[in-house]
Queue: 4 jobs
Job 1
Amino acid sequence: MKVSAAVCGVLLVGAVFCMLMSANGQTQLRNPPPLIRIAELEINPDQIVAYKQALSDEITTSVRDEPGVLTLYAVSVKGQPSQVRIFETYKDQAAYESHLQSPHFKKYKEVTRGMVKSLKLIETEPIMLAGK
């Protein structure tokens, strides 16, 4: 299975920030590990500006208001702004399910319904997450 450079980049950036540092500076994997998903989206090229605003609003609110949303990183594939990748890290499955039911996520889904041409969610299993 071929993994795009953008997905690898998102994984690398996300992994750097998903780790907690202990008092002695050693990296430690959360136990249980966080739930990590990758969303691959194709956005209608005529709707990119509006989509980016809706996504920015949703990410800002989710990270600020939901304790179980640890990280949400959104990037586009270089030279292909309609190809969006979102690296999502949640404390656990319950936090993810709570996020899906939040008013701001439901608003995002409604607002972007006609903007998103395709969506693929990728389940992952953390191997090693480290950060400073």
Job 2
Amino acid sequence: MKKAIHFSVLLWLGLATTALLSQASGTAAAKNDGSAKAPDEVKGVNGGSDYVIGADDTLHISVWKEPDLTETLPVRPDGKISMPLLNDVTAAGLTPLQLKDTITEMLKKYIADPRVTVVVTGMNSRRVFVTGEVTHTGPMNLLPHMTVLQALAQAGFTQFANPKAIYLLRTQNGKQQKLPFNYKDVVKGNHPEQNIVVP
């Protein structure tokens, strides 16, 4: 008689809680930053300028021709970064472009025509939590547009996993959704609608 293996998985992202929940015999689940031209683009690693900065993200702030103001900084739990001359600057909740504009305006008191670049070098504010019959349990950084299949591929299955019985449990606006995910069907090209973006 086979022993049933029961487990649950949770995925947490920003203000919304998302989860992959699986409960079956041998089941796997994934839970759910001179002549040279001044840079004026705002970039985010693994993401575009629409990425919203959060606590624990890592930012590289570069001010053209001002090496003393160019730093790689963590976003503190209170959502702020600390910069020379400016002291605390709120970063969380802003896109890199918005933060670039904020820093530029603040620096105009000290520097003529400051050219600022903001690069998200570590996206640590959004995480997926994986547990169950997977090789790598615990949190993993959530990449932009990461799908359920990508999260599971990164987590890996154990020999006891049942990839046909995976569930995505997502809580948004106080309501919980339980979405089934059949790994074997999805990798064969069937039911692509199950391979949703995790956030």
Job 3
Amino acid sequence: MCKRFSRIKLLSLSIFLLPVQLFSHPSPDFSPVEYAAENVKTIVFEKEDRMLAYPFIQRGPDDALILSFDVIDGEGGTLWYNIVHCDRDWNRSDLFTSDFLEGYEENQITDFLPSFNTRVSYTHYRLSLPNDDIRLLVSGNYVITVWEPGNPDTPLLVRRFFISEGSSSAAVVFRRPMKPGATETHQQAEITVSIGGLAVTDPYRQITLTIMQNGRSDRMRAGITPDFVGSGRLEFNTLSDNTLMPGGNEFRYFDIKTIRQTRQNVRSIDFVNGIYHALLLPSEDREFKPYFFNEDFNGRYVVAMEESNEPDREADYVWVWFTLPAYSELRGGSVYVAGDFCGWQHGAANRMTWNTARGCYEASLLLKQGWYNYEYLFIPSEGTDPEGFAFEGSHWETENDYVILTYFRDPTERYDRLTGITLANTRAQ
């Protein structure tokens, strides 16, 4: 018995001393840039039980985030993921993994199901954060990276999310801009941050705001410092241009919840070469048209299917064809179909091509059945963000969400604390 016990102790000690890498797949090189492989579609990252909620929660046991996505024509099976903590500028923070995460550094996604009765085969994955494997210990910016077993250097998916500690709050009032040239086209937020019990000694260096319009990385202002400091509060007023943003327009939309008949803004649905194709009605140029309000999802989408209560695995994929008539091709840049369905990215997958014979821009995207918002963007060749208001126009009255993130750098800590997140809407005041 003693001999057997000694062998067990020796084996346990040997296992304990082995490098952790033998029991997990090597982590991929870190990148904070959001990314999805070509075969990864329908990425939804939102608060649990809160459809269309942005990917942020308050640290604690009551809030959770759900990340779901599809892998087209994949073999199925377990995927791996890791989580990295970042500073306010999305650089890897100085924290050790054990400082911000309780659990293993790499973990598996084991909740997945194959598609059922669809023309396009896919595997649907779902991950809850936090979960039984990990718990996030501090507030801040986070990046999750997902990869296939054996391919850690080829990520399938990279997404950002936020954890707040709720120790500060922000009051937001929207003003019509007074800046010449922006009065009709832009929106401006006046923000007052209450810092509560935070030990702030140098608010101009320790406190900054990041503002995101509709959760978009291409409509973001970061590193905003206070304009005025008072007793327990910081004011970010409209005297500067720090919170000035183009209002844009209400989003275009279409409905492909069913493939049996056409719905809103769909001209025809055809079955060609084993897959469904939805041709949208030609889009109009709204650049110089007056503002008109309509309810929308602020650029997002909802996966849905009229014939099923389980759209996650029973909704099919459809080739959706976009047509944007124009007098001539725009020079010096490219036109894109944009929305949350492509992660607000501007790449080859959603770039439109100019059809000289028909006098229009065209694009086709493989999208899951549902209800979609989208817009058209012109991106200059030398830039990465939308410039001007080609095809869409911009109005100060447009209904938009604004996510206000308050960061605090405590000199006694080694990371940027995300002390508060406020969601404000231009019409909810």
Job 4
Amino acid sequence: MTEPRRTLNRPPSNRAGLAAPAPIIFGFTDCQDTRKALRFFAERRISVHFVDLAERPAARGELRRFQERLGAAVLVDREHPRFRALGLHVSGDSPERLLARALTEPRLLRTPLVRSANRVSVGHVPEEWKAWVQAERRAGMEPEPGRRLSS
């Protein structure tokens, strides 16, 4: 069987029939903002993948992705009681060093951490998530019930 020929003016579709990757929400089940993020996507019938940081800490690569886009200082929650309990409020560590510490102490992170394809957000930012959903609709890829949100 011969391979189909491609035309020069139209790239091949790499999404034919494939579901887009689901947004991933990193957070804690006892975090109000994480529950708000889960509810936001559930109300729009967009399936998500939830990672409970209490059971499974974020991987170094995942945190690096958020750090590259938003900066290390944004990811660290300096207001959380765990930050003070560890004495980090007086230690003067750099945000990068605090982020490395967050690999073993996930409560140091601001939650929820939300990633959808190449987009990332930290904290409760429904305006940003709405923009993601609207961008999907404008691209003609409106998420149907049970469909996943893509880039």
